[in-house]
Amino acid sequence: MSTIKHLALSVALAFSGQALADAVDALPHVKVNLVAPPQVHVHEQVAPKEARVVQFRLVIEEKKMVIDDQGTTLQAMTFNGSMPGPTMVVHEGDFVEITLVNPATNSMPHNIDLHAATGALGGAGLTLVSPGQEVVLRFKADRTGTFVYHCAPEGMVAWHVLAGMSGTLMVLPREGLKDPAGKPLHYDRVYTIGESDLYIPKDKDGKYKNYNTLMDSYGDTRETMRGLIPSHVVFNGRVGSLTGKNAMTAKVGESVLFIHSQANRDTRPHLIGGHGDWVWETGKFDNPPLKNLETWFVRGGSAGVALYTFRQPGVYAYLNHNLIEAEMGAAAHIVVDGEWSDELMKQVKAPGPITAQE
Ligand SMILES: [Cu+2]
């Protein structure tokens, strides 16, 4: 190609890129303050007609985290310091603009692969940042649903994800959620739960090892991961992160949206004493939700969504109905206030001595 032709082509390419950037730049910009799970940042369920550029800032934090009541530690890698990272919410047609910051205090390069995004390894190819760098990625949310995002540095994807680097991005339909008949579905509260399988190495006496640095933990952790038997299966980073005083709350009559992600492994969410009134098992809102589920299946590498209107007060357990994994840590509580319905359930006779049959 001649130099002139080459130059003309470069100018044309630069120009078309520029023109597109200008059109998007002219859209309203919204900066979102992210919050740690199980909370989700304040957002509208029905969006204005015009698309927006929604801006998020994710700061990567490598740190040691305690993952159970025995003080077992994980050399974790996180988005914004929480495990999973914060849930981000936008609407279909919006542009998601993420500033990914890798502070100089970190030791590893990181990036972000967004399952919601189209192109360049979900953004991972354009967002690799070394300690001391930041990068800004923008992509169009061109389809609705809940989508996992995770770190994906070449050759170390599993380690970074299992050390905590995953989260959920929810792209709502502009007009909000609907049932299969087209009737709007509204939620009063939303909680986001990220389930993780963890692989903490043990020493020769069977005690969990405690490492001083992230790099020290790498070799043993990789070997333990390849055994495929987790030492812990947890919600939101540790055993008990959502039970007892950390329980989620709701009121009778409220509709609660539960987002459940698992970036690596299949899981089976179940609400004891309740149901999934409407469940998008695959999390993709263009598919009609399933009705009245008892347990739903969330595939590893995806996020599912369940909507439930509480009808009875009490302490509900929400868990992975692989009950072994629930006992290993994959369990949460929801404390629900309100009035009990005897019609829905009543103890007709309290426990007492067995009486002769009539
Ligand atoms: Cu990473």
Describe the 3D structure.
The chain is 13% helix and 34% strand. Strand 2 and strand 3 form a beta hairpin. The protein starts with a helix and ends in a 21-residue tail after the last strand. The chain has helices at 3-25, 157-162, 214-225, 323-328, and strands spanning 29-31, 53-66, 73-79, 88-91, 95-102, 113-114, 133-140, 145-150, 166-172, 177-178, 184-185, 189-198, 232-235, 248-251, 255-262, 269-271, 276-280, 290-293, 302-309, 314-320, 331-337. The strands form five sheets. It has a six-stranded mixed β-sheet. It folds into two domains: 28-175, Cupredoxins -  blue copper proteins (Immunoglobulin-like), CATH 2.60.40; 191-337, Sandwich (Immunoglobulin-like), CATH 2.60.40. It has 358 residues and is mainly β. The chain has four helices and 21 strands. It binds copper (II) ion. Copper (II) ion (CU) binds next to loops.
